[in-house]
Specification:
Number of strands: 6
Largest sheet: 4 strands, antiparallel
Radius of gyration: 22 Å
Shape: elongated
Strand content: 5-15%
Order of helices and strands: HHHHHHHEHEHEEHEEHHH
Strand order of the largest sheet: 3-4-5-6
Number of domains: 2
Helix content: 55-70%
Distance between the termini: 36 Å
């Protein structure tokens, strides 16, 4: 459609006939994200509340469909790029976020670590270097109010403020490690998402419980390293069911599910069911 035809279609959004509005909404929705600038301009040039509200709903619908499509593609491609999965959830909350800017900030941290690491180092020595660069040089730290602040779960906010929740700190830490070919993955421990260092050679000889895990890392506590006994104690203290999943590495897809669930928990805590349901729709894509 030409610009004039799109503008003419948008002007009809204030039509009182709901059938007309539904038909236009479907037509605009099929155009995808390319029509959003036209909708935004029309919103700015109007003072009609109904007209603006309808535009806002259409933009949100287009945006959600776009993220849904990209998330499905990410899953279909194996969900190997943890950054991409986290970025899509980030963009769902912040539509105008710039992917290249986020990657540039991550690249700076990664390069600082790369300069210090070599293949002759042990797994523990590599993690010690990551911790030094991550927490001491770049000053990342925990946000103790993360349960009351959903922004702490998103990469863009973490990279700007240098403070994050257990899940966001873990995701950024794992993204950097994986990009450096260091086998660090998430562990779905309830109430405190953590990471583990996985030795694939050890995995072939290890018991099913550990699944090749050399040790665990807590990014929410300056990357402190600990063992299986500490997890067993945590499970006992929290009165949790003893599950193998609490000791084993999870996939990047499962890590993103944990991220989404953390966001859902926040919105449910403030009784914002609409927002919680919108994120729940994203989680469904990853579950199936």
């Amino acid at each position: 459609m030409t610009k004039k035809e799109i503008d003419s279609l948008i002007k009809l959004l204030d039509d009182p006939d709901t059938d007309v509005f539904k038909a236009i909404r479907i037509k605009l929705g099929q155009m995808g994200s390319e029509v959003i600038p036209f909708l935004e301009k029309a919103w700015e040039n109007s003072l009609d509340h109904l007209f603006q509200s309808r535009i806002e709903n259409i933009i949100q619908e287009i945006h959600q469909n776009d993220i849904t499509t990209q998330l499905k593609t990410w899953v279909d491609n194996g969900a190997s790029d943890l950054f991409k999965g986290a970025f899509l959830i980030n963009r769902f909350q912040y539509p105008d976020i710039n992917e290249e800017e986020l990657l540039a900030k991550i690249e700076k941290i990664k390069n600082d670590i790369w300069l210090e690491i070599n293949e002759n180092l042990t797994a523990l020595e590599k993690v010690k270097i990551i911790n030094h660069i991550f927490y001491e040089l770049h000053n990342f730290s925990r946000n103790n109010t993360f349960q009351k602040n959903p922004n702490t779960h998103f990469l863009n906010q973490l990279l700007d403020s240098k403070k994050g929740s257990p899940i966001s700190l873990s995701i950024l830490y794992a993204i950097i490690a994986q990009q450096l070919n260091i086998p660090v993955y998430g562990v779905s421990l309830p109430k405190n998402f953590i990471l583990c260092y996985r030795d694939k050679e050890l995995e072939a000889f290890d018991d099913e419980q550990s699944n090749g895990v050399l040790f665990y890392i807590n990014p929410f506590n300056k990357g402190i390293v600990f063992g299986k006994k500490e997890i067993q104690l945590f499970i006992k203290q929290q009165k949790l069911e003893n599950k193998k999943a609490y000791f084993q590495p999870c996939t990047n897809r499962e890590t993103i599910i944990n991220l989404i669930n953390s966001i859902i928990d926040y919105y449910e805590s403030i009784a914002d069911q609409t927002k919680a349901d919108s994120y729940r729709s994203l989680a469904k894509i990853l579950y199936f």
